[in-house]
Automatic annotation (TrEMBL):
This is Long-chain fatty acid--CoA ligase. InterPro entries: AMP-bd_C, AMP-bd_C_sf, AMP-binding_CS, AMP-dep_synth/lig_dom, ANL_N_sf, ATP-dep_AMP-bd_enzyme. Gene3D superfamilies: 3.30.300.30, N-terminal domain of ligase-like. One of its GO terms (molecular function) is ligase activity. Residues 383-457 form the AMP-binding enzyme C-terminal domain. Keywords: Ligase. CDD domains: AFD_class_I (cd04433). The keyword Ligase applies. It comes from Paractinoplanes ovalisporus.
Amino acid sequence: MWTGGPDGDEGDGVSEVWPRGVLDLLAAAGGRTVFEDEERHVSGDEMLSMIWRVAGGLRDSGVGPGDGVALRVGVDAEAFAAVMGAFVVGARVSGVRDQKVPVDSSDLVVDGERVTGWMDTPGRPQEVAGRPGDIARVLWTSGSTGVPKGCCQTYGSMTAAWAAHPDRWPQAVRRLAERLQRYLVFGSLSSQVMLEYGVLTLAAGGTLVVARPPGFPDAIVRHRATASVITVGKLNQLVRDQRGRPADLSSLRALMVSGSPLPPGRLAEAIDVLGPVVFHGYGQTETGMIAMLTPPEMTPGALDSVGRPPVEVQVRDGEIYVRTPAQASHYWNDPAETAAVFVDGWVRTRDLGAVGDDGLLRLTGRARDVIIVQAEIVYAGAVERVLAADPAVAEAYVVGRPDDTTGEAVHAFVVPAVDATPDPLALTRQVASALGDNAAPATVTLIERVPVAPSGKPDKEALKAALV
């Protein structure tokens, strides 16, 4: 077993470097179906053969350790094979989701057509060539707080991750893994969340099931899915749909909420409507999972938290710093941001929060999601929590806009709860009472649903544009 750490320090057993753990899982699965796409069922043996074909094709194309591969792949079996095949040859792998993500001129761009062509070649086992200190993948942040940044994970870091190794699972991950018999995948298998939970599903003996349109709740019903990832906005929509037009979600055992904080009131409502299936996760592209609140832990006093972190956490001046087994080491071609975020082996999350006496981590806002009103810092997250606590509000989002009088002003957008009409004046007064006059929204706009960015996170830039 590889004993090196996230920085790629060498140890014994280099042959165990990533993605050897995944290859071993597929070999152990043998003839069992590991990937299901409508009528197509792919066994562990068949997936291994596909991975060897991709790896062979990449090597024939001149790709080896340290070379860049940019993947334009979707969510089919070939896409999974492409991701793993690129890791087998030791490449620097990045997923290209849109024009915001730069592609290095020296990278080999691999799309679905190229991968399909490699499927006609012999599938002979290949050497796992990753070098622990090399960059294994560049994960691009959503850009929700600015320009997307490329988070660089080394092969040593990915080897230290827990997903493929049940003996390393924290308790929260173990509870989740028990429910991953049929895990819905969508979007792109080169994404961090899809791949991490996908590998966890394989390690738990489950099957990756492709979610073809339409989406929730139809995909859950149609595929008898037991688990999937969902954003806060889509979770709220699913809850509203279930209240009005309930679908048969009896197969569902785990919904992993990601992308943005889930207010306690909305979490309680989701539990009431969907049952004990919600896993409220907290993590970042730079770190992977930091904490997760699981259904057995969701007592009333814990709903405002994100669970007990199974990783190292420090709170410095109200800001959360973490160390995780598989954290990134730096940003791609961005030394200034690297110096600001990766500090002495710790990752500065730029999230505000605290660990209570009960061991639960509670988030209070983002250090950079601020609005300067009358020279006073107003945290958008704090205003959003006050607004979301109103029973008439399902979701709340706050942005800042230049103001001739105050420098900047707070502007709020709220999605009404079912059969409710929020009172903008009352909401403004609630914020002023809780946080002070400078935090009170200059405008409160009712919207049917929040616009989302390609990452699935709320698109605050689109909200700002709506104010013009």
